[in-house]
Amino acid sequence: xxxxxxxxxxxxxxxxxxxxxxxxxxxxxxxxxxxxxxxxxxxxxxxxxxxxxxxxxxxxxxxxxxxxxxxxxxxxxxxxxxxxxxxxxxxxxxxxxxxxxxxxxxxxxxxxxxxxxxxxxx
Length: 122
Hints:
Elements: E1 4-8, E2 22-26, E3 29-36, E4 41-42, E5 45-46, E6 52-53, H1 60-81, H2 100-105
Antiparallel strand pairs: 1-2, 2-3, 3-4, 5-6
């Protein structure tokens, strides 16, 4: 999943605007707006270093290319910072408690008979 995405924001579009404004999302949270100025879109793209990239007034296609480049940087950073997963813990087997009727019907095990060579010498 990409870190930085653009989402159209038609509810913010004014009557006189001809181009659609966009929300700039970082992991699904709005961090900035992309709006059309005189010659192109203006937006602040969050970078992995904690700053914002301002590409200037660019076309929507160029803005998306810049976001794709920043997303590759985010992916590389997340790969290097990914924590090492601990091995899964073994789950103890839980057996249901035996029914009292079953306990009454079960015979106790017979003692095992040893061959005469293995009998204890007392």
